[in-house]
Automatic annotation (TrEMBL):
<comment type="similarity">
    <text>Belongs to the CPA3 antiporters (TC 2.A.63) subunit F family.</text>
</comment>
<keyword id="KW-1003">Cell membrane</keyword>
<keyword id="KW-0472">Membrane</keyword>
<feature type="transmembrane region" description="Helical">
    <location>
        <begin position="66"/>
        <end position="89"/>
    </location>
</feature>
<dbReference type="InterPro" id="IPR007208">
    <property type="entry name" value="MrpF/PhaF-like"/>
</dbReference>
<dbReference type="Pfam" id="PF04066">
    <property type="entry name" value="MrpF_PhaF"/>
</dbReference>
<protein>
    <submittedName>
        <fullName>Monovalent cation/H+ antiporter complex subunit F</fullName>
    </submittedName>
</protein>
<feature type="transmembrane region" description="Helical">
    <location>
        <begin position="40"/>
        <end position="60"/>
    </location>
</feature>
<feature type="transmembrane region" description="Helical">
    <location>
        <begin position="6"/>
        <end position="28"/>
    </location>
</feature>
<feature type="region of interest" description="Disordered">
    <location>
        <begin position="92"/>
        <end position="111"/>
    </location>
</feature>
<keyword id="KW-1133">Transmembrane helix</keyword>
<keyword id="KW-0813">Transport</keyword>
<keyword id="KW-0812">Transmembrane</keyword>
């Protein structure tokens, strides 16, 4: 094995180790939360880590088979992020905020 091939193997191994560590930290973030937005962002980062892992596998095998799969995963991650952002934007509109209760314990206005 030549010196450039050894360097490639070392760099790819380092990249895979970093992806695995990032995946472990990502699972901790999904588990702990604390908010739903944190979990949604973590799932988007999970898609990016899967794409990075497939890219590392492609580079390691010197095969371009996974490129279309990576493209589809990137598209799904993007559409998922946009969908979550739209859901949160609708949920956080000023008209959708819960009304504060009256001092006597009843709700304001019609329900």
């Amino acid at each position: 094995m030549s010196a450039p091939e050894q360097i490639d193997r070392i760099l790819l191994t380092t990249a895979v180790v970093l992806i695995v560590v990032a995946g472990a930290l990502l699972l901790a973030r999904i588990w702990r939360g604390p908010s739903m937005l944190d979990r949604a962002i973590s799932l988007d980062v999970c898609a990016a880590l899967i794409i990075a892992g497939l890219g590392a596998k492609s580079a390691f095998a010197r095969d371009h088979f996974y490129f279309p799969i990576m493209l589809v995963l990137a598209f799904l991650g993007f559409t998922g992020s946009v969908g979550i952002a739209r859901f949160i934007a609708v949920r956080d509109r000023p008209g959708n905020a819960p009304r504060p209760p009256h001092p006597d314990g009843t709700q304001e206005g019609p329900q």
